[in-house]
Structure formats: structure tokens, C-alpha cells
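ok so for the tutorial part 2 we go from a plain amino acid sequence to predicted C-alpha cells. step 1 is just haveing the sequence, like this:
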Amino acid sequence: MGCNMVLLRFQIILLVFAMKTSCFHARSPFHARAHSAQRSAGRYLRLRGGASIDEAAFEGYDALSSFARFSADGHLFQVEYALEAVKRGRTVIAVKGEHCLCIATERRAFAKLQIPSTVRKMYQVDAHILGTIAGMSADARDVIDRARMEALTYRMEYEDCPPVEYIAKFVGDLMLENTVSETVRPYGASVILTGFDKLTYHEYLPSRVPPPYPFPRIFLCDPSGAVQECSAISIGRNSNVVMEFLEKHYDSHLHLIKDKDLQTEERILCEFALAAMMEVVNMNGSRSVELATMTIENGVRILLDDEVDILLQNLSEQLEETSPEEIEKKFKELNIKEQAYHPQTAE
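step 2 — the prediction. this is what the C-alpha cells look like for a chain of 347 residues:
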């Protein structure tokens, strides 16, 4: 009887020890479990180039959990990949004059059953601010929505419209947040913010005499978080070719619009933007490009297709009248003819 009791107690002790051991192994620390899962996943998951997750850990940079780290030569590859996504987007051009802004975006062929109005590149951020995107539209929508919320918050707090520069810096800070965290990826889109500020030229450039009207401003916000102000800018596909054209002819067109009425200035800027777009896009009438203008009097106005066709026809006639050797001189001495159209609001 005594031997049986001793044997039973020994069996109970072994059972309790076995249970404690199994519980100890089942409830390992979180980092140990994560490391174990990563090692087991590395046997099956492969990264680009055929490297496993375990092998990628020795690459030192471009692994799964190191998006926000610099490479040895000072690059942030994820940001550069995002900029490459912008370069693959549709071409966008923005130019400004003295009283007017013009924005041109490339149109591409739609599917037969697709509704064209659902594909947008221009978004109203505030009553006096327009956002134009290039790159991944899904990413840009989130940026535009947050910019709209910030503009609304500014109006509620200060009872005034937000400056264009303020919204541009907010968008830049928003994009910068996605480049310093390992839990998110950079936005794959750039945003051009155009609008009018109530600041005077004297506050902006002290060497100039301040005019008695708000002046137009163009800001570019890219996925790296950088914000820059420009007189004319192009992003998207073949933007480097368009920028060369803008840099070459902007001063001559700025001279043309000097002391002109608003309608003439609007027309000259539109034809200038179309001429720049023709450098990289095979024009097929209004099916290939969308134009919008911004003025203090009319706000944001998207040109009708008939208006775009008239501008393209007039521009084509002017270019056909000259030889290739005279095109450069023609752009410098361009004499815009009067057009028989008037500003109309287009939905």
C-alpha cells in the first residue's frame, strides 16, 4: 500500500512538471515568437531577385522592415520609387501670369463603358485653391481629402481663407511623415497646388512695387515632402521635355500678357500650355487634353471641349504658317488673334 502511494505521488509530480514545461514552450515571449515566425516564413517567402527574408536581413537596407533607412550612399530607395511612380503618370502643366493661372492635364483613352467624368486629375481644395495630381490617384485622393479638412479647420479657427503656401506646407509635412516611419510607405503621387494669396508682392519680393490685387502662386509637393514654388511647372510623363520648353519660352509669353485684359491673358496662357503639351502628346482635339483656368473674378473654370478645340485649331494654324526654322521666332513674337468665346462655368 505504501509503495503504491509513493508511485502515485511520483506520477503526479512528473505530470505537473510536464504540464509546466509544455506551458513554458507554448507561451514564449513575443519577440521570440515573431523571430520564429519570420524564420519559418523565410523558408517559403522570396523577395525580388530570389532572396529569402533571412537573406534580405543581411542586405542592410532594402528589406521588409527598413523602408525609412538610408542606404550606404545616402539614398532613400522607397522615396525614389515613389518619384518614379509620379514620372509614369499623366503629364500635368501649370503656368501663371499676372492675374490668371492655367492648368493643363493629359487625357488618355477610356474604356467604352467607362464614364470619363469619374477619372479626375483636378480637385478643388478650397474656394481659391486647386490641386492637380500626377501618379497614383488613390494615394492622391487621401492627400487631397486631408488638405480639404485642414483648409476647413483653418477657416473655422481664423475666419479667413487659408493661404496657398500654408496648405502647400501642410501637404509637404503630410508626405514627409510617410518617409520617416517604417509602418507606412511614401505616397506615390505629387500634387500641384495653384491659387491666389492675399499677400502683396512687397511682402513676397521686397524689391518690387506691390500691385493692388492678390497674386497667383504655384506650389509643387512631391512624395519626399519637398515643397517648392514655381512660375511654371510640369510633372508626370516626359516632364523633363516639357520643362525645357517652359524654361525656353516662358519669358517671351510673360512679355505678351503684360498690360493685357483678363480674357486675352487667359487665352495666351492656355495656348502656351497647349503648345507645351504638344511637345509630348499627340493631340487629338479635346480628347487629349483638359484645360482649366483660375482667376479672381471667375474662380476655377474648366474649359469646355469646344473651347479647347478652338484654341488647338488656332495654335495649329499659327504653327503651319511658319517653317521649322521660324517656329522659334514665332513663339517669341506670337500675336494672338481674337477668339469668339466667353468664360462659362463648366461642371
